[in-house]
Design a protein that fits this description.
Chain lengths: ~425, ~425
Amino acid sequence: MVPPLDAETIAIGTELLIGGRSDSNSLFLADELGKLGIAVRFKSVVGDERRDIVTAIHTAVTRAQVIIMTGGLGPTVDDCTREAVARATGHRLGRRKEALEGMTARLAQWGRIPNTAQLRQGMIPSGATVLNNPVGSAPGFCLTWKKALIISLPGVPREMEEMMRQEVLPLLRAESGAAGWSPREPIVRQVFHTFGLAEADVDAKLKGLIPKGAPVDLGMLASPMGVLVSLTTKGNQSTPEKNRDLLEELTNDVRSRLSDWLFAEGRDTMEEVVGRELSKQGLMLAVAESCTGGLIGHRLTQVAGSSAYVDRGAVCYSNRAKTEMLGVPAELIAHNGAVSKEVAAAMACGIRQRANVSVGLSVTGIAGPGGGTETKPVGLVYIGLDDGTGQPITQEFRFHGDRNVIKQRSSQAALDLLRRWLLGKASR
Amino acid sequence: MVPPLDAETIAIGTELLIGGRSDSNSLFLADELGKLGIAVRFKSVVGDERRDIVTAIHTAVTRAQVIIMTGGLGPTVDDCTREAVARATGHRLGRRKEALEGMTARLAQWGRIPNTAQLRQGMIPSGATVLNNPVGSAPGFCLTWKKALIISLPGVPREMEEMMRQEVLPLLRAESGAAGWSPREPIVRQVFHTFGLAEADVDAKLKGLIPKGAPVDLGMLASPMGVLVSLTTKGNQSTPEKNRDLLEELTNDVRSRLSDWLFAEGRDTMEEVVGRELSKQGLMLAVAESCTGGLIGHRLTQVAGSSAYVDRGAVCYSNRAKTEMLGVPAELIAHNGAVSKEVAAAMACGIRQRANVSVGLSVTGIAGPGGGTETKPVGLVYIGLDDGTGQPITQEFRFHGDRNVIKQRSSQAALDLLRRWLLGKASR
């Protein structure tokens, strides 16, 4: 049996280590490599320290056959990936013609000539193949050392992604044939997004789903946006068709077990799901937001083409704004409080009528940390939906978490109510 | 000289490896450890595979003295951190009374009793100290092996953070005394946030800032929100006071070089900066958004207490909404187009007047990918600000990037104009 092909990604940059930034490149890399049947088993992050990059490379070659490094290829002095790879693998750095030419051509397009610092970007370890950067100035490179393919790419996501597509993936496909590597069966992954159930409840619903010993992993991850469930095939199996059938069967089983709580699959988002359904039904939406402050509008308009079904939104932070923008009677607010199901209903109805659209959606709540009372604590949120039938739908939630979490959950709850209404499944 | 104390974080979870999720815990950990003078030099991410977690532990002990693992402590079968630590260090797992008691007490508060799966969470490697989880059900633990302190915490950020504060940081302070560890001088880091300059321009402004050989690293990171600059002292120096003086001097130098482009320092955000200034000046704000779809309102209301200065927002996605909500004349839109400086000015003026507040801020643009023309391409964005002087300020931008990047940049540009206006530095 041919040994499986494992990958490790190494993200380089002190900013990624201590600077409040996450490394997002490795997620893209894992996806793309997975399609080739190459599993990312380790991800590492190191700062801009040559000795630490060297250590990371030496560790990676002991446990991975494909090593993709991102970052540290820029023109500044703290960009030391080139030096680190040379040092780690015992190659010398040298100025490489094809690297300089690509960079010069790219800069020329922007009407610039390379300065001394940028010329450093043309230094490539001996024996390495230069990888052209069609988007930016820093070239990448790859070389084989200790039976591992070490690939070095810039850290700028747009440049890294384009170079993966144009240079690295074709190379990996070719190499895997030439070197006698036998990539595993592609790792297939099904992702399911749920809202409205706690992780423990999702777990209970999925109990006994995976037959004992079946080559599929079940994953679960809770966030303010809901619980994500994933099924991932284990690569390198001898019976790929059987696995695919099994995954299909399990996917159907998950769908039926999660039923209405399942709002999207794969890379689909809640806002795309409701957007598609609004389009399909030819409906226009207007939103009235208090505690979410514009987040629902922002999310809806993340979808290209959303102007076809989003007419407007009103962010009514003050009580006066609720009355002036939506016609919510001041007495209703005075009597029930701004955070109440009555005001949520009046806001949804008000925005629907004023915008003259099919459906109005509203949120009012206490995002905290201040503003809570014993009877109306932080996290109390009301959602409203009005479709002109004279019977607005309202829902009460008591969310936990900080201000941001409460805003996120509130926006998700509102969009989920809209989704259920669009599917004819919202209970009044 | 006492050897420096280095840390490695290991985030565990297949979701973090391939699931489109970044590991945010390690950023918090790096911050907190840095305050104790412990540098995170490596971050690792591994999936829920026992053998991979074992490998990660074995690698970490060769290069770090403090190892903090997050995740894999839940009740489900794929949570195997407990088993992996036991296996890696040669300890046996056993049910531990204090772990079970803490968990039972916590669940009792929620009116539940532990089920069989949750009881797995009470299994702790022999010789390890149990770390109480005051927020969730899964206890953590720590043990010393091969001169490294291995700490295992849950992956849920809220639980991990609370356990760091209540359990781990006091322990590290105590241990560092008892074990004769001499933590380095705290790593001090100054972060500067700029908007409006390209990375190359920031680089040029900061040229020659750091004296040759000075124990301070200069970092730079570009994002749609601007260019972040950081100064980080290198720990373990023999002259801490001198370093502090140097950092202070460099900080002042950076401030004067970046001048008005510097909008915030440290963990401060643009929305906090403008919020504080609005509060201080006793001004109320209203916002009219087209292409940002609510993002500006969302960002402003991320700040606790923002209801004191945010009155309302109008998300006017359709032309009709611009006319009805803001009184922008339909002829003005017909004549200039919805994406024009005239409409931006009318939107800012309209929202200010209707809300009867001190200042109105507006954005109109083409976020794409559709909707662009030769004269008005995707990325063309107009910002408007009206303060009732009869002289609205407008700015034109031509942003690059995808829909989300254009929305982000537009929101940042609008808030930056507001900031400059608040400081009396906006050019009309």
